[in-house]
Amino acid sequence: MTATGEEQATAGTGPWWWTRWRSAVLDGGLALASALECGTLGVPFAQEAGLPEAAGVLFGVLAGSVLLVRRRWPIAVVLVAIAVAPARMGYLLGVVGLYTLAASELPRRIIASLAGMSLLGMFVVTFVQAREMADEDADLGEWFAPFFAATMAVGMTAPALLLGMYVGARRRLMESLRERADSLERELQLLAERAEERAEWARNEERTRIAREMHDVVAHRVSLMVVHAAALQAVARKDPEKAVRNAALVGDMGRQALTELREMLGVLRSGGDARPPREVVSSAAVGGAVEEQAEGPCLEDLEELIGQSAAAGMVVALSVEGEVCAYAPEIEQTAYRVVQEALTNVHKHAAGAKTYVRLAHRVSEIAMQVENEPPPQVSSPGLPSGGNGLVGMRERVLALGGVFVSGPTDAGGFRVSAVIPAS
Length: 423
What we know:
Layout: H1 5-10, H2 21-49, H3 53-65, H4 74-84, H5 91-103, H6 108-136, H7 144-235, H8 240-270, E1 281-282, E2 291-292, H9 302-311, E3 316-321, H10 329-349, E4 355-361, E5 365-372, H11 389-399, E6 403-408, E7 414-421
Parallel strand pairs: 3-4
Antiparallel strand pairs: 1-2, 4-5, 5-7, 6-7
């Protein structure tokens, strides 16, 4: 990750307030040069002031050494430069101090005030020097002193001030770009984490959906196969012809279940849309089968579905209300699976109970209800139950914005109701 200016300052390895040793060495070198300059110019200052030369040198060295703290206290450096300007020293101190002040994060009004004071101080000092030079040389006109003073004052302050403002603006721009890069990187990390969470959620949803589709495809036919196998065992010796018919039904249903499983696994291997295959009809005898396949199941297949349950010994009645409409494939598919799973549950838990299947076509929705009477006191076929049938039906209906209700009736039976919006 890129580092902002604050992080770079925190991670600095330089001494005291310096973030890097290179900066400390640079400031030390500038302070040394400034101390030498001020110390040298302190000799004539001491002579003019009537002080010992050593005192002037010491004063100059101390004043020039202030440049060492320019990064920490830039205002102090500029004020010292303005203060020593009448002593005709501190030129390097003033230039570097103004540059550092302009490049800092201080308010613009403070920078402008100190720059104006520095400009005025430099103008006064150089004007006095120019007047002295003009007095010594009669060839210099009256214009020389103000022109020289203005030129020196602007030349000593404006370039340093402008360069410092440019460097400060560039530094702030770089800091802004670093912060923006950090922000973008954090956002990308969050997006990647959310994408991973969505991918994991999608994988879980896909596993759940595939499990539900496999359950819907296989459970009904296997349940009917178990029922027919039980009937076959019961009539094998008493009624051979009926046993043959039951055996043929078991074979047909087994082949249909295998075909549906093959279609489902083929879709999964190809990475396509794992829609449940439509009910297939075997058109061959026990020896070999050529099977027709189409798209997913629809409401037209309900009569065949109920006929299969009736062939397994269930007394089931179908009633349809309203005008038959054309619905979206997923709506018809869901309605079909709800009825199929409800009939499967009747085979499992209420074998022999009379069952009513009601289908109602309304203006903006389709409603279905599967209700069975209390089962007779007969032996159960012993069909296993995974407990996921009602959950799968509810998930299918709610995914389409519908309503699903299931539960026992007052008469001792069981009712499954669902309403699915038509659009």
